[in-house]
Amino acid sequence: xxxxxxxxxxxxxxxxxxxxxxxxxxxxxxxxxxxxxxxxxxxxxxxxxxxxxxxxxxxxxxxxxxxxxxxxxxxxxxxxxxxxxxxxxxxxxxxxxxxxxxxxxxxxxxxxxxxxxxxxxxxxxxxxxxxxxxxxxxxxxxxxxxxxxxxxxxxxxxxxxxxxxxxxxxxxxxxxxxxxxxxxxxxxxxxxxxxxxxxxxxx
Length: 203
Hints:
The protein has 203 residues and is α+β, with helices and mostly antiparallel strands. It has one domain: Inorganic pyrophosphatase (Inorganic Pyrophosphatase, Alpha-Beta Complex). The protein has three helices and ten strands. It has helices spanning 77-80, 152-164, 183-201, and strands spanning 27-34, 40-44, 51-56, 66-69, 88-89, 95-99, 109-123, 126-127, 130-135, 175-182. The protein has a five-stranded mixed barrel with strand order 1-4-6-9-7. It is globular, with a radius of gyration of 16 Å. The two termini are 30 Å apart.
């Protein structure tokens, strides 16, 4: 008996073994590491592909959306060039926040997401963009096409989370947000991250 072409005998690495999406940069896959219910910063271990505890959240700030990354993307020189405050990309896969009306309480899942915009962030002088997307088939947010169509308070919560999630009392915050941008610039950032990935890891 032969296996279907899409069958994986072994679990694929979530960064390198999953597809970018069915129609990037507009419709992408997001591999979710954290949910709005997590008080611990979870992150994929780059060597094994398994989730590990990066750090307990120091503050009471919680991510207001599903948070993870777009597979087969890499924030390198091309992503860095799009941020005038950055020297280079941060060397990680491109982050994504996915908004869903229904609570999704578990991580290590793949969501199909429609990209609507992004946040231009800089961390220790490196580009650290956060793509903002909506769950593609969401009953409330699924037809939104631009970040400006989202409730303003929701975007404020996302930006507030990222300005505080690495904050250590008494120390200077190394993460800054330069601006929030719409889907056209988000598409540009995603394409740059796909190109950076191909340069580092091959197509």
